[in-house]
Structures are given as structure tokens and as C-alpha cells.
Amino acid sequence: MNWPFLVILGAVVGFVSGLFGIGGGFLMAPILVFMGIPPTVAVASQASHVVASSTSGVISYSGQGLVDYRIGGIMAGGGALGALLGVEIFRYMRLLGQADLVVAVSYLLFLGVIGSLMLKESLTEILRQRRGETAPRKERRRPMWLYGLPFRMRFPRSGLYISVIPLIALGGFVGILSAIMGVGGGFILIPVMLYVLRMRASVVVGTSLFQIIITTAITTVLQAGRNQTVDIVLSSLLLFGGVVGAQYGARLSGRFRAESLRAALGMIVLAVGVYMGLELFVRPGDLFSLAPGVAG
Amino acid sequence: MMVPLPPPPPAYEAPAPERSIATQGDLRVAAALTNARVRVDSGFRGASIVLYGAVFNPTDRPADVVVVVRGPDAPVRLVRKSRNLGVWLNSRPVLFEGAPGFYMTASTRSLGDIADFGQLRRLGVGVDHLRIDAPEESSTVTRYGVRDVVISRLGEDYLDWRRAVIRLREAAALYNTDPEGVQFVDKGLFRAEVDLPTVAPTGQYFAEVWLFQDGAPVSVSNLTLTVEKVGLERDIYEFAHRSPWLYGILCVLLAAFTGWAASRIFRRN
Fold first, then answer.
1. A58: closest CA among A167, A166, A211, A235?
2. Which of A5, A61, A293, B243 could be A206's S-S partner, Cβ–Cβ 3.0 to 4.6 Å?
3. Which residues of A touch B74 (CB under 8 A)?
4. Is ipTM strictly over 0.85?
5. Where are the domains of chain B?
6. Spelled out in words, what is the top-level CATH class assigned to the domain B28-228?
7. For B46, which DSSP code?
């Protein structure tokens, strides 16, 4: 594999992730697969790329007091359980020769849905501003079921007093996705934290990044330990480029309007989901492929 | 249920020549490797096996040299995609109990011109004739909690699967046929070079040097060599498989450190 190309690829994906404030995992894995790296290796190796880009994010948010370690820690606990489960699922599917299917379906499903929602929401917002209308008042109440659950805790930084059960469940779900798709899961965490849990908006990104670091770190160790699919050379090349690109992307992001950025990101997310899903419907070039396992 | 693996290659043990090798004036071949220990540098271009040999041909009819290099046998798992309800899905993995991890022939001209189909099949010479072990009855084995189908050599789709193994291995440069791989450098002295890709398996390799005349094998020389991998990537690979947990923790620490370093460097600017 040619290494300058991988560094540049890391830088480009890092730039995009800095620009949109995302981890970039969902973008990296499909590009690696497109380049011919087996999906199992791509998914596992770029989880550490997510660790690197999230670490530098958390450091800058933490300096401004915008990370709620309490809520992030509880979600990360769920994330650890989810990662354990996800890696085992992934291991079994890989041996069954079905890892590609699981990766394709999860990308199509989650990225397709999230991308469509983002695109719809941001386009509505852009159209509304063009017409000079004001935004309708949003529903500020949390769903009632959140209040009915036991084990409630206070989270002063997020302005929350809620049960830990939905937090652990959310963390666990994202942990599974992290193992199967190699993503940090910010694209699911952030909307849920913002619109369902109604956390204080300023701490959402920092806290989600904190939870992502812990979950993807555990995923990386588990993938290496159980599946031996982490390629440290591949992931290092990607992340050296990635951290640099991310810094430049973040500087540029201030020049664009939030809605335009969200619309562009929605389109990218949707396109990636569809691209990964296409594999299910297009006749493959060779019907046969080698399955991992006995020959390593 | 495990069927015991067949004996290791060479598949065909050359019969001891009835006439003594020392007999002068006999048609025969002798060969030697320039290096019986081949080191493949995993980071770069692979390596090559270089073999020199001599043909003693007192007759006036021409003879052909065929070099077969075989890597260690290992089981192969394959899946086949088929269309179900409009979606392409992988089948249950199919297991071949053993196929050479590397198989390459080099010859003075194309194998089909040197000997006929039956002869090549009997000797197991040529990618089309290499041994891929399969029992007579298909069965299922459970490995790592997954049930694999062990393909039967009598099954109707056996040939499809067999061809797929060869095709995929050829695509990875692990199986190859080089009809011009044996070059005569002088009268009676030939040289053959076989390229090993970086993905070639390590272990004991067997090289057979056949001499054919009039479509029949007249002499064979068997050689063994050891292939080992060296280089940074190989060390990392070994480490990742020997202590995978420590390796994983190192990966995470490296990633976290890089992220931290980047944020320090860029904040100062």
C-alpha cells in the first residue's frame, strides 16, 4: 500500500471531519474498502483514527469547561458493554463470512436514515430563511418516559436530572455500532443528546467526543485482541494525516453558515450510506471470495 | 468430524531411477537452489527463488524442464455470493481441507506442449492439476463456533469452487504459471526464477525439477527450501498475533498521543 497516499487520505478525511465537527469514521471506512482493504480490517483500523481526532477535540473543549465528564463517563460505561457485544457479533459474523453484509446493511440503514433527516431538516431551514420566515418555536419538553425511569442522577453541567438507564442504553447502542461500523457514533449521539435528552447545547459536542474516545479505544483493543484485524501501520498513516487535516478543517468551518454545513454533511452521509448499500444489489465481479478463519 | 489430512506434498514421490544416477551417458536433470533460506521482506517487493540446474542429454531429441514450487498446505475457506430476494448474500463458508499456500510452475514452454493432460494430472504438475484436498463425502465441521461445509470432490459444484480457489490465488500472485520461466543460459545449463509475493506463506517449500522428453517424465530432482519473512511489518504482524491485547493497547495509546500532540502543536501556533 502506498503510504503518501494514505497520509493524504487521512488529511482529507481529517479536514472534512474538522470542517463539520464530526469524527469522520463513517467516511474513512468506505474509502478504505473502496481502495481494496478488507472491510473487517478497515473498520477495525480506523477506530483508532477516531480516537486520535476525538482526543484533540476533547482537549480543546475541556479547556473551555464544555465536557460533562459525569454523563460522558456513564455513557462510556454503556459504550464499553456495547463494544464488547459488538466485537463478539462482528467476530462471529466474520467467521460466518457475513461481515461484509453486516457492514453494508448497517451503513445503508443508519447513514441513510440520518443523512436523509439531516438533509431534510437543513434544507427546510435554508428555504425558510430564503423566504424570510422565522423559525417556529420548537417543542422544549423531553419525552415523558424519560421521567418515569428509576436511578435518577443530577448532572449539573448538562442541566439534567434524569435516570441513568437511557444514558447507558444510548452508550451501549453506539458501542455496538462502533465495533461493527468503525465509527465513533457522533452522528447518532449528538442528535439524541440534543433533541431527546435536551442536554445543554454547549456541552453536547465535547461530552459526545469524550464518550467516543473511551468507546472507540475499548473497541480498538477488543478488535486487536479478539479479531487481530487492527493494522497499526495503516491506522498510524491515516491518523498522522488526519489530525493535521482536522485542525485546518476546524479553522475553515467558521466561514460557512451552520445550515449549509449541515446540508452538505447530510448529503455526504446519505451518499456514503447508499454507496455502501449498493454492494448488496449490484452483481459482484467475482461471485467467490476467500473467507477469513483457518488460513488467518 | 475431522478427516485426517492427507500426507504432505510432494504429491508424487519420484520413483528411484532404475538405472543408477551415476551411470554416465544417461538423460537426467540436476538442480540446486542459490539459497535454501528465502527471506521475504514483507514491507516491499517480496523475494524470488532462484534455481540453477543442468540437463545431461546424450540423446539427440530435445528435452523440456519444468520447475514446480509448492508452498505449505493449509485449509482454505471460501464463500460464494448468490442472489436472494434481490440481495447478493454470501453462502455458508465452504472449506477445502488443504490447498498449497503457494504454487508456481516455470517451464521451457507451455505445459500443454510438454506433456499431455493425463500425464500432467498424474504428476500433479500445473495449476489445473494441483492437489486441493477434498474428501469423497461432503460434511460439516464446526470451527470457532461456525459450521462450515467441507466440500466433496465428487460434488457437482466441486469444480466451480476449485476454480475459484485457483482464480483468487492467481489474483494474489500466489499461484502462477510461467511458460518461459526456465531459461537456458548455456548448453545444458538452465536458470529458473520464481517470484514470491509479500503475502506468500512462510514455512517449508518443495521444489520439483522435472525433465520431460517426448511427453514423458524421465527424471526429477526434489529440493526443499524454507521461506521466512523479515522486515518491520512482519515484526508488527508477529507482535499483533502473539500478544494481541498489548498490541491493541499500544494502538490506542499511540492514537491518543497523536491527538494530544496535534492539539498542543496547533494551539501554540
1. A211
2. A61
3. 294-295
4. no
5. 28-228, 231-269
6. mainly beta
7. B
